[in-house]
Amino acid sequence: MGNGVCAVIVTYNRKDKLVKCLQRLRASTVAPQRVLIVDNASTDGTPELVRRLFPEFGLLVLEHNVGGSGGFEVGMRRAYASGYDYVWLFDDDAYVAPDCLQRLLDHAHEGDVIVPIQIDQTGRKYGIYHWNNGLVEVDKASQPVIPVDIFAFVGPLIHRRVIARVGFPRSDFFISADDTEYALRIKNAGLKGICVLDAVFYHDYGGRTVQVKRLGRVSIRSTQPAWKNYYNIRNEILMARALRVPVIQKLGVCLYIFKKFGRSSLAEVVYEENFLDKWKYTAENGCFPLSSEFPT
């Protein structure tokens, strides 16, 4: 298998979560050949803790916080330059099941990107999508391996030929939608993504969540600040503008984004008390950056 697998984990000021993440990784039945932790200039003592508790893992401490997008871009460049066959991506709040990597590798010959499912704090299975039809209903899948277009940077096993073809994630996204944009580039390059449904990551999706009841319905909401909402919207607009695809397909992507934010905005009005703060922050900062070009 050549140089094998390099796991790239991006972290920032969440050392408690990172310790749990690395302990779970250390307990894997099949370990990656290298683990590279990219620290986004944490100020909570994360680098010192990693060096003390996990000396066998590589650590790259950045000079300033470049966000999750920038962290993955830097880590992937290091892994690719070192000649690894696969890059395995996840955040510090993602906890791998012991046999996850083994199950992904068992199916590595079937695709270019091999994706696990995610299970959140409520037990919901999620994390894989079709580009034009939204969420893939995992529980209704009849096969152990299914095709997937869109995936999160929570456990995808990416072959180096993918990087050679499409490059690296967009570091200018800072946070949010970098994985969606990268997955669409992979799809549009004619490469194949698959999901292995018995390969699992447990993911503290969205950090802290609250359960809200309105109009007789219950919704589990992630407590994201206004600035994260801004990046959600800005980056999806950037993504749609930069896609190099036929006009009809770009219109489909734009329609998907419009429907997605229409639904999410309606849900914010119904379930979230700070929805006006989110909208105000987004309006004040603008969602239409001048540049939409891909990085090299």
Write a brief structural summary.
With 296 residues, the protein is α/β, with parallel strands linked by helices. It has nine helices and 15 strands. The protein has helices at 15-26, 46-53, 67-81, 100-106, 160-166, 178-188, 226-242, 247-271, 275-285; strands at 5-11, 34-39, 58-61, 86-91, 94-96, 113-119, 125-126, 128-130, 134-135, 145-147, 150-151, 157-159, 193-203, 209-214, 217-222.
Mean pLDDT: 82
Q: Strand-residue fraction?
A: 15-25%
- Overall morphology: globular
User: How many helical elements?
Assistant: 9
Largest sheet: number of strands, sense, barrel closure? 10 strands, mixed
User: How much helix, percentage-wise, in residues?
Assistant: 25-40%
Specify the structural class. Answer: alpha/beta
Topology order in helix (H) and strand (E) letters = EHEHEHEEHEEEEEEEHHEEEHHH
Oligomerization category of the chains in this entry: single chain
Q: Indicate the radius of gyration in whole angstroms.
A: 19 Å
Termini Cα gap = 28 Å
Which segments are poorly predicted (pLDDT under 50) over 5 or more consecutive residues?
Answer: 288-296
Total count of strands: 15
